[in-house]
Amino acid sequence: xxxxxxxxxxxxxxxxxxxxxxxxxxxxxxxxxxxxxxxxxxxxxxxxxxxxxxxxxxxxxxxxxxxxxxxxxxxxxxxxxxxxxxxxxxxxxxxxxxxxxxxxxxxxxxxxxxxxxxxxxxxxxxxxxxxxxxxxxxxxxxxxxxxxxxxxxxxxxxxxxxxxxxxxxxxxxxxxxxxxxxxxxxxxxxxxxxxxxxxxxxxxxxxxxxxxxxxxxxxxxxxxxxxxxxxxxxxxxxxxxxxxxxxxxxxxxxxxxxxxxxxxxxxxxxxxxxxxxxxxxxxxxxxxxxxxxxxxxxxxxxxxxxxxxxxxxxxxxxxxxxxxxxxxxxx
Length: 331
Known about the structure:
Elements: E1 2-5, E2 17-20, H1 30-37, H2 43-51, E3 56-57, E4 60-61, E5 73-76, E6 98-101, E7 105-110, H3 126-133, E8 141-142, E9 151-157, H4 160-171, E10 176-184, E11 193-195, E12 198-203, E13 211-216, E14 228-237, E15 240-247, H5 254-261, H6 275-283, E16 291-299, E17 306-310, H7 315-324
Parallel strand pairs: 9-16
Antiparallel strand pairs: 1-2, 2-5, 3-4, 3-5, 6-7, 7-9, 8-9, 10-15, 10-16, 11-14, 12-13, 14-15, 16-17
């Protein structure tokens, strides 16, 4: 990476810089490119300077999902990089259950309660712990993300070429992402497709920007994003339905908001769920959201062949299923 001082910088903005995108970074999303180079800058701030147009690519405005290319000039405004305190926690090296691994990528089974990366009040996440556990690895980068409370399949690229090819598949909706979700009641058999646009908003918290949330939007709303979710009942579990949910679009909180909009919020969801039910279940030991990234289908970035990675239900989720509907006794 080459860093040069922006020739348009004024004395008041002497720290304005321009990054020249090198071959290794070509194909990355703009947000990922900036997060990689702005270590210590809060993720929310990075998205803010993109959204407000303070970040420019080849002197033009760009969105977070813009793909940077070799030779692009990325202008960055002055940013304050926080200096880690001497007593700041260092990510402990940690390996996670491996579902698949070769020279190009790693698929792990992420546990619930662990963020995929540090930021927004989280000191470190899966990727920082993996890097600590594998100091000899040339590269480890997240291909996609999962909510902190969601368990299951998570892909990590070990080569830049694998990262860009896999992210292209996610962007072009060429991957198959199926989750397992548990909802109270019997899911209607005629509700197989949920095609409702979503929109992000801020929930006032009294401090800062507020908490980011998602809601159903009107299709004509300028900020609405189309979101498509396919739902299939895997089986009934007592008074609950275990659903196989496949997302055709990867919107923030898509499954959670779509299922809740139909009157069937995910068990344990602390943002869009049935809070009274969640409280009762927590007293019985079910203290997390029942959403699990079960199966991921994609084309291997090097071999070019279809690949399927699958993660069994997390133990605490399986235990709840067995509690609600005990397995038949062996004959």
